[in-house]
Task: structure prediction
Amino acid sequence: MPATDPNIVISDVSKRFERRGQTFTALEHVDMQVAQGEFVSIVGPSGCGKSTLLYMLGGFVAPSGGQLSAGGKPVTGPGIDRGVVFQEYALFPWLSVADNIGYALVRKGLPRAEQAAIVARYVDLMGLRGFETAYPRELSGGMKQRVALARTFAYDPGILLLDEPFGALDAQTREIMQDELLRLWRSNRKTVVMVTHDVDEAVYLSNRVCVMSHRPGRIVEEFPIDLDHSASREDVVVSATYRDQRNAVWLAVRRQVTRASGGAAA
Result:
């Protein structure tokens, strides 16, 4: 449970879908709080409702029961207070890199000079210098995700919601992008909720990891994470602290996967 006033509150949330005349329960009795500036990852078996929960926080999917609030306000639909980064980039193909990053700034009605300064800042932060006039079709997967992250950070939402943001990337690019995200988060300290199937990624990036049960999903275990990111990535991932925390989360997920497959609890 967060030590400070929560920025996100999920209270007894459930989600049911109707499929071919039958009711399908994806989430049940989900309770979770996220403090201002906290980075929380959600992991669990495939199909446990992780992404559904994130979409409810984003306001794209309504809960069947319970309540969700963000920034002290009930979540009733999408809003600029919550920035969402999807796995598949979701860039505007007809806009250049600079125009994709600045899209929300135009919508906010900021002066042109301020827009340009903000875009230039995130172009530099994300290593996109020289690609300002390029279009998404001309970029690699890693570059597209840099643009997606830059666009979301640029319009300064208080909360970031990340749905498998690096899932489509190769292993090397994924690690680079993880470090870019961690650097941006440490400089801004926004509230972040990330859904991922990758336990190593969750432990490396987060303050806290929440493990969901097999369907219907709910939060069954939470793990505070305490890593020294002033050290290099190599030093972090070979440390005993990282190993122990990673293994604890992995075993918790493994227990839920075993139950989901009908086996005995590990």
Notes: The first helix runs from residue 50 to 58. Helices lie at 50-58, 97-107, 112-125, 141-154, 171-188, 199-205, 233-237, 240-260. The chain is about 35% helix and 25% strand. The CA atoms of residues 45 and 257 lie 5 Å apart.
